[in-house]
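Mods, move this if it's the wrong board.
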Amino acid sequence: MIYVLATTNVAEVLKAPVFIEHLMDYQGSFSEFLVEHYDNHQPDSDWDTDQKLPFFNPPIVLMVYAKLPETTFHIEKIKEIIISQKPTVYQEKDFSSSYLSRIFQPPRFC
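Not the wrong board. Structure tokens:
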């Protein structure tokens, strides 16, 4: 129980009697009290009492530290590959004049 009260904001709820007592002493409405004490409150004559109000200075329960990995990029120049080819020379005798006519024929074996 002591651990729960020390490490969570449940301990802030236990400060409710201080809140009610300070509200009773305040001259003004409830909404004015909330605005004055919880909306960027500046030090005044009852600053010590204000520090004891619930959720005025809530404890930091958990702090997360995350570090992203460093990324580096290294760009290398792509090496140019040259493939040498001998030019192919075709002659008329290498082609048959019936080449195209032989493509569109019915199958020979059924």
